[in-house]
Amino acid sequence: MASVSRFSLPLRRLRCSSATSQKTSRLRPAAQVRWTTASTEPHQADKSGGTKGASAPAKVVKFTSETYPELKRDSKYSQITPEHVRFFQELLGSGSAVIDGLSTDATDDIEPFNSDWMRKYRGHSKVVLKPGSTEEVSKILKYCNNNMLAVVPQGGNTGLVGGSVPVFDEIVINLQRMTNIRSFDEVSGILVADAGVVLEIADNFLAEKNHIFPLDLGAKGSCQIGGNVATNAGGLRLLRYGSLHGNVLGIEAVLPDGTIVDDLIKLRKNNTGYDIKQLFIGGEGTIGIITAISILCPQRSSALNVAYFGLESYEKCQQAFREAKSQLSEILSAFELMDGRSQKLLNRATGRKLPLEGEHPFYCLIETSGSNSDHDSEKLTNFLEHVMESEIVSDGVLAQDQTQIRDLWSCREGIPECLGHWGGVYKYDLSIPISSMYEIVNDVRDRMTEAGLIGDDDAHPVVDVVGYGHMGDSNVHLNIPVRRYDKKVEKALEPFVYEWVQGKYGSISAEHGLGIQKKPYIGYSRSDTMIKLMKQIKDLYDPNGIMNPYKYL
Amino acid sequence: MSGLRILVPIKRVIDYAVKPRVNRAQTAVETANVKHSMNPFDELSIEEAVRLRERKVPVEEIVAFSAGPPKAQDVLRTAMAMGADRGIHVVVEESEQLEPLGVAKLLQQVVGQEKSNLVILGKQSIDDDANQTGQVLAGLLNWPQATQASKVTIEGDSVTVTREVDGGVETLRAKLPLIITTDLRLNEPRYASLPNIMKAKKKPLAKKTLKDYEGDFSARLKTLKVTEPPPRKGGVKVDDVDGMIGKLKELGAL
């Protein structure tokens, strides 16, 4: 009988995705596929289906140095020479650990490390290093620091603000070879693993032990846990499990001078001095490279339910959220918002049928997870009846099985990927007080319409302005899918969006980080005093400034 | 002909996305605390019955039927939320599992009581993979059968069924009454919408036991042992091209 799942799963997939799954690669930017690790992304690649409309032409990504002409290569950094490369080759040994674009033509091999998956940022790096151990990372950094060679730490390269790709000729240090899961304690739920472990692999490992990684996001099949921690990724279940600042118990990191910061503590409580590890969490590789983490993983819930609603207005979404909190309380594990436009674009880009008949201005996805399915079902049914009868939601569906759960989730998780379908996306990841969270989307859309930038044909750069995000965390993703990246669009967006957010005392980067995109705008969310303190820390740990330059601060 | 009276038998099984585990005693698969849902082939049956009605084929009634533990009620409610008019639940405890012949004998009597003239079954349930019930029922009733349907059209009392066979399709035509079993590409089942889930709660669900039916439903087979397939051996990672060539040579592939 164990063969049942093996038999039925492929059949089911066949039916659900029918003939469309092979075409997914057209939808996904070609470059990303190349460095996606072996695992699949069930919410994206398997289910998002094929493309009905014409897919965007494969464009050459513009160099970041051309997009931002004001950025100049800092002459304090040395130019990389064949001697440097020889040192790395001797240090790392095996041939695949060093991609040498200096003495050989390795353009195609290096390209995936030079540009990001949104095709927005592209560097000029000639050398990629893939260390296999913390000691190797330490030796690399020490050498780079002594020789004034700038570096970019890189994980799965799924970042959204250009933080993980070089700008000029910085050396890429990619952690994809550090994939060891070091230990897991079934009693405490504490996992210790190398930074290069892919999130989904870590989560699958934990699933076998009935635990769950306290972070989940759309890119889980490619992103690495070290990168997740370095960028303090938020994701889909933050509402339930909290931020990485709380869940990460310890880290192992390497400072630019080669010092190994061994702080892989496996304690929940440890009030002994400054909590230095927090500087690395969300530090975006500017003071050191995280090589391993220890993280507290909660028990995996055995009972999972997902419902998907259509709602009339943003006010109704807020009402639904309030009701969900009061009636579902401890079993509520996600409350996601998608506007009608984002769902329509998902449908246009992938051809997938949406779960609800008819169109609704807003959609919400609710997930509950608990330990007793009867208890959860009863609560959820009461909640659903209540929101239907009091007309808070206009329509909705409740997943009846595991595959429907995945399909409903893909209506939310598939959005970021499908928006790139027309050529590119401008993404803003904003924290805004919940009552005015969606206003920004309408305001930006009005602004684009006034400027005549939005339209259905090629003459207009902007396809649409959409908003979706983590309603439970007051975090909205303002996305502007475009046919091409255009300075006029940029001018209409910035600094308008940032000023708008500042006016509401929001944050210009809720979970994506600063990277290169938001470096100039940090002042909209942090005071001069705070920025000064941050700069002192940067100078203290990275006095030569070799770590991920031109970004963050 | 007055109209179609469709009977759709459905089964509650371990969710197809869940990996079944064999219990410690190696007598069966672990079912406690495991997510269950409607057998996917049965979802197709319900969907097809509802679509027939939506295509304006004169459907008088769609009855969903399940024989299984008390929780089988849940899948009957799902079936009614998808569009079945009412449900019949024969409560069978986990300990007294039915075999295909037993189910077919039950269905034979239900068909008589409900005056059904079309029975749409899943071609098989994904837990025991027997693929027998539809065929045995056709034999007991002495009705024609069209198995593994990928397309169904009905005009008057003439039914045309397309079935996928090796290397092509086969088209059958038969007169009602008829047995149809469904295959994967017949349709794509809908989601149960909230308004329909709520309506389904008010639809009639008759509760019965095996005692309400005549005949011997006892099992004829005895399960001796259930074991998991041997785990797949993991691969090895090589460091570089030379390593791979060496490994291939070692395995005699080069």
Automatic annotation (TrEMBL), chain A:
GO terms assigned for molecular function: (R)-2-hydroxyglutarate dehydrogenase activity; D-lactate dehydrogenase (cytochrome) activity; FAD binding; metal ion binding
Annotated InterPro entries: FAD-bd_oxidored_4_C (IPR004113), FAD-bd_PCMH (IPR016166), FAD-bd_PCMH-like_sf (IPR036318), FAD-bd_PCMH_sub1 (IPR016167), FAD-bd_PCMH_sub2 (IPR016169), FAD-linked_Oxase-like_C (IPR016164), FAD-oxidored/transferase_4 (IPR051264), Oxid_FAD_bind_N (IPR006094)
Stretches the record annotates as Disordered: 17-56
Keyword Flavoprotein: yes
GO cellular component, one term: mitochondrion
Biological process, per Gene Ontology: malate metabolic process
Compartments it resides in: Mitochondrion
Transmembrane region(s): none
Pfam family, one: FAD-oxidase_C
Gene3D superfamilies found in the cross-reference section: 3.30.465.10, 3.30.70.2190, 3.30.70.2740, Uridine Diphospho-n-acetylenolpyruvylglucosamine Reductase, domain 2, Vanillyl-alcohol Oxidase, Chain A, domain 4
Keywords from the named record: FAD, Flavoprotein, Metal-binding, Mitochondrion, Oxidoreductase, Transit peptide, Zinc
Keyword Transmembrane included in the entry's annotation: no
Domain FAD-binding PCMH-type residue range list: 121-300
SUPFAM superfamilies the record matches: FAD-binding/transporter-associated domain-like, FAD-linked oxidases, C-terminal domain
Record-listed E.C. numbers: 1.1.99.39
Cofactor list: FAD
Catalytic activity line of the entry: (R)-malate + A = oxaloacetate + AH2; (R)-lactate + 2 Fe(III)-[cytochrome c] = 2 Fe(II)-[cytochrome c] + pyruvate + 2 H(+)
Superkingdom of source: Eukaryota
Its biological purpose: Catalyzes the oxidation of D-2-hydroxyglutarate (D-2-HG) to alpha-ketoglutarate. Also catalyzes the oxidation of other D-2-hydroxyacids, such as D-malate (D-MAL) and D-lactate (D-LAC). Exhibits high activities towards D-2-HG and D-MAL but a very weak activity towards D-LAC.
Family recorded in the similarity comment: Belongs to the FAD-binding oxidoreductase/transferase type 4 family.
Name this protein carries in UniProt: D-2-hydroxyglutarate dehydrogenase, mitochondrial
Species of origin: Lophium mytilinum
From TrEMBL, chain B:
Cofactors (names): FAD; AMP
InterPro entries cross-referenced by the UniProt entry: ET-Flavoprotein_bsu_CS, ETF_a/b_N, ETF_b, ETF_beta_N, Rossmann-like_a/b/a_fold
Assigned keywords, A-Z: Electron transport, Mitochondrion, Transport
Membership in a protein family: Belongs to the ETF beta-subunit/FixA family.
Subunit record text: Heterodimer of an alpha and a beta subunit.
Coiled-coil residues: none
GO biological process, one term: fatty acid beta-oxidation using acyl-CoA dehydrogenase
Source species of the chain: Lophium mytilinum
Domain Electron transfer flavoprotein alpha/beta-subunit N-terminal, residue spans: 26-217
Pfam families per record: ETF (PF01012)
Cofactor info, note text: Binds 1 FAD per dimer. Binds 1 AMP per subunit.
Protein's name in the database: Probable electron transfer flavoprotein subunit beta
Compartments, as annotated in UniProt: Mitochondrion matrix
Gene Ontology CC annotation, any one: mitochondrial matrix
UniProt-recorded Gene Ontology molecular function terms: electron transfer activity
Matches recorded under SUPFAM superfamilies: Adenine nucleotide alpha hydrolases-like
Listed CDD domains: ETF_beta (cd01714)
Domain of life: Eukaryota
Function of the molecule: The electron transfer flavoprotein serves as a specific electron acceptor for several dehydrogenases, including five acyl-CoA dehydrogenases, glutaryl-CoA and sarcosine dehydrogenase. It transfers the electrons to the main mitochondrial respiratory chain via ETF-ubiquinone oxidoreductase (ETF dehydrogenase).
